[in-house]
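For homework, think about our next protein:
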Amino acid sequence: MDRRSLLRSFSYVVYDLIIASLFYYIATNYFHHLPNQPLSSTAAWLIYGFVQGCVLTGVWIIARECGHHAFSDYRWLDDTVGLILHSCLLVPYFSWKYSHGRHHSNIGSLEMDELFVPKQKSSIRWYSKYLNNPPCRVLTLVVTLTLRWPLYFTFNVSGRPYDRFASHYDPYGPIYSDRQRLQIFISDAGVVAVFYGLYRLAMAKGLAWVLCSFGGPLLVVNGFLVLIAYLQHTHPSLPHYDSSEWDWLRGALVTVDRDYGMLNKVFHNIADTHVAHHLFSKIPHYHAMEATKAIKPILGDYYQFDATPVYKAMWREAKECIYVEPDDEAGQSKGVFWYNNKL
């Protein structure tokens, strides 16, 4: 199941890029011919942004596989492809690769996990109870889906706390070791190069053209990545552990598979095979369904799957999973933490 086929992996890259190019061609060559301008054109660009964003989310996921060395048998090729694809989506490839690798090594640990570490009740701010209502919850979700991804890379928002400022763009920050710093510079250079290319495009075709053709889809990509990661690691049935109870296998099972319907294939099964991904991160996505079917009978009740529609799950988790607190049932270890929402 972990056999990596260079030809097959590249076929998904080519397929996704052809589909993305086709949507781009249609948008830039035909939208201005639509009747009832500008209303119809605005609607068409909004649809384009969503559909193109879904396709580019699949491209992002292939780049993720490069970071896991799941794309090919050649690490240098994985890093080259991953650097190009992630840079084009304004993601610092090596920076993410290293921090995400530590997420896989420490998932479920309240002290050491790198991303989506839940707050403990003692750290909940006094004003949180005033935000736990439908209007504020909607606002929180909107801000999370639109801004959390760039804020995570830039300011480590929602990331593991460090004793000083941490940023994925800082080669000398606490996230990285000395041997990784050169590659962080390379990641930064890749993002800067794409920003420069977008600047030149804006000068040639206009800022509105860049925002419509690239900015809208990128916003959708960022939103889906945050949503997918959030729902993979946030669920009332998922425990978290402190250092007295955590081990790697326990942590690897602190995730839940979700169903995105027809988008499962578009997203290369990132959401409905995530349990297998955390157990065997070097398995290519085209073997992930096979791996998931194999581990289900072995894991039994330890395998987590939730078929709740995504929009309902997002609302429920935002409402019910506010913080974690130790299990206070008799005989249970205080090192196991569960979600709660009583403020």
User: Anything to note?
Assistant: The chain is about 60% helix and 5% strand. The radius of gyration is 21 Å.
